[in-house]
Specification:
Number of strands: 2
Number of helices: 25
Low-confidence stretches: 1-22, 24-30
Order of helices and strands: HHHHHEEHHHHHHHHHHHHHHHHHHHH
CATH class of the largest domain: Mainly Alpha
Mean pLDDT: 91
Strand content: under 5%
Radius of gyration: 23 Å
């Protein structure tokens, strides 16, 4: 089944931080066609240390963090005093766009260079290395100031601006300064900040149009329905630059998704998943049907009216295996949560609602939350079933809110979307009881609240967008003009979404 798909062709609660484990970051290295040939960093080392450093740098720009760390450690072995090799490995523990940072791991890397901050600076071989080191030391707060993570993000950006301004020709300084800007948009996408980053990155595109960092961060800057056309140039190049980086192959689909180009999105995620599966095969592991790239692939297939059941069923089997083995984290990242995502999407689009596949306890919170919401959507009109699922959803939400600060303290967005799912569910319950006016009012309020949240990239953060659901309810009541307005609003946030397009056509009187 998997081979056929390759030949032919978010999770309600998933913040960027929670999405990280599904990006293939735990996969072994395979090839190094990741854009190394476009690395022009001026190093103070030659030979093996330089080669390993440049591989690590390219992988770092591609967000292939585990592989990048391995390459930087290889550079350290070749030259134990090369400051930039430790800088690079420390940088792999900061994931600004996923709202996560492992400060303790990064500090341990810096301590291997020298346990004392002054000793580390003494090992720098030129002023540029000192500035790079100063920036990463600021990022992780080695000065003892006690600044918070968010405060350090702004302090780090100031250091990177100085580094960039001191040599405008340094393409990596430009790229990482752009990324640092994006990293100050705490709590969701901030258009003004993202456009500021794009403005700084665009001159780099003019001089280094195949640089993976410039391309990657431009795609992130333009990753919304309004600005996505500006990202098409970067997407076209990035797909070619790093064929052995699964994240790079997937990343171009962010632009295609925002444009509603489902065939291109499908193709990109087939390629991304193929990279991961090649890596798994190299390590003697079976292909995966779960994970971030497969999730986007399923969504792209569903938007084209294609059958995604082979992937959904395959992921279900892997979820059952994960449950049998026990979760290895408190929220339940991995196969079980990935299955819950794609099974809910399939239910919304096809009516083939998932049978429960749930572990118990905190280790499967994400899957349990998604499944509870899916049961509410599947039970429309059956108020007793909805009441039970809603009570479970609210109970699980309280557990989630308690666990999240301990597991993902930098996450500022997923609780907002959890609250939106609850609000939508309360509207569904009122409508199921026949309280049309109350239900529609609640549903419209839920939709407006969703629209007020920062623009999200990727598939809708809840399985059924509330504006789409509102449009369907109004259409069923014969209120076509109001329904059409609701569907248009749904399409503003999810361009090209099949059910919204079909609803709009019906509301406007199409066949």
């Amino acid at each position: 089944m998997k081979k056929f798909l390759i030949a032919s062709a978010a999770l309600m609660l998933a913040s960027p931080a929670l999405a990280h484990p599904g990006h293939g970051g735990d996969e072994p290295a395979l090839g190094n066609s990741v854009g190394v040939e476009y690395m022009v960093f001026d190093t103070s080392v030659q030979g093996e240390a330089r080669e390993q450093f440049l591989v690590g740098l390219a992988l770092l720009h591609n967000f292939e963090y585990r592989r990048a760390a391995e390459a930087f450690r290889g550079a350290q072995e070749a030259d134990p005093d090369y400051v930039m090799a430790y800088w690079g490995e420390a940088m792999t523990y900061n994931h600004p766009l996923w709202e996560e940072q492992d400060r303790e791991a990064a500090l341990a890397v810096l301590a291997r260079l020298d346990p004392v901050r002054e000793g580390r600076f003494a090992k720098t071989r030129n002023q540029r290395e000192a500035m790079w080191l100063d920036a990463v030391e600021t990022l992780y707060g080695t000065d003892g100031s006690g600044a918070s993570k968010e405060e350090r993000d702004f302090l780090y950006l100031a250091k990177m601006r100085a580094l960039h301004d001191s040599d405008l020709s340094d393409i990596d300084a430009r790229a990482f300064t752009g990324l640092a800007m994006l990293g100050t948009a705490h709590g969701g996408r901030n258009i003004a900040i993202y456009m500021q980053a794009a403005g700084l990155l665009e001159p780099g595109f003019m001089t280094h149009e195949m640089h993976p960092g410039i391309l990657h961060y431009l795609i992130h800057s333009y990753d919304d329905p309004v600005h996505a056309p500006l990202g098409e140039r970067a997407a076209a190049r990035y797909a070619v630059v790093a064929p052995d980086a699964g994240h790079a192959q997937h990343m171009v689909s962010h632009i295609f998704h925002a444009l509603g180009d489902w065939k291109a999105s499908e193709r990109a995620n087939v390629l991304a998943d193929a990279v991961v599966d090649r890596q798994r095969a190299e390590a003697g592991r079976d292909a995966t049907f779960c994970g971030h790239y497969n999730e986007w692939l399923v969504y792209s297939l569903l938007q084209q009216g294609k059958d995604a059941s082979a992937i959904v069923d395959g992921c279900r089997a892997q979820a059952e295996a994960q449950i049998a083995a026990g979760a290895d984290n408190r929220l339940g990242w991995g196969a079980s949560s990935s299955y819950a995502v794609i099974a809910a999407w399939q239910g919304v689009d096809t009516g083939l609602w998932p049978a429960p596949v749930e572990g118990t306890g905190e280790g499967f919170l994400l899957a349990r939350l998604q499944m509870a919401h899916a049961r509410i959507l599947a039970s429309f009109g059956r108020e007793e079933l909805i009441e039970g699922a809603l009570a479970e959803l609210k109970s699980l939400a309280e557990q989630y809110k308690q666990v999240l600060p301990q597991v993902a303290p930098d996450d500022r967005t997923s609780v907002n979307w959890l609250e939106r799912a609850i609000a939508q569910s309360e509207a569904i319950l009122a409508l199921s009881y026949g309280k049309a006016d109350e239900g529609l009012a609640l549903l419209e309020a839920a939709a407006e609240a969703e629209a007020a949240l920062p623009v999200e990239f990727g598939p809708p953060r809840i399985a059924k967008p509330s504006y789409e659901l509102l449009g369907e309810q109004l259409l069923a009541m014969g209120r076509k003009r109001e329904a059409a307005a609701a569907f248009r609003k749904a399409l503003d946030f999810a361009p090209g979404r099949r059910l919204s397009l079909e609803g709009l056509k019906a509301a406007e009187g199409g066949a």
